[in-house]
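Hi there,

I know you've been waiting on this one. I reran it after we fixed the sequence typo, so this is the corrected version. Both the input and the resulting structure follow.
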Amino acid sequence: MSNYDKLYKTKDFYLACFLRTKGLSLKKVFKVEDVYYFCFLNNGCVDKLISDFYSGDENVSPTDFINSIRVLKSLIHSSSD
């Protein structure tokens, strides 16, 4: 299995913020046309975290979530064309 196979990719900005807040390692941000993708190291708990995110079964610190929003927005704006 290559390192790429161990990555989880999403274009959902707020899911990406949530995954970062939960401690997943953000490995890459890239843009295809007008869509940004966020790639995280899949440590085996990604599916559960995604399920928890969409069902509302997981809580995070509001301060930590806001920090993740700021960091990901900064990455997007610094890589803008």
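Quick highlight: The chain has one domain: 4-78.

Best,
R. S.
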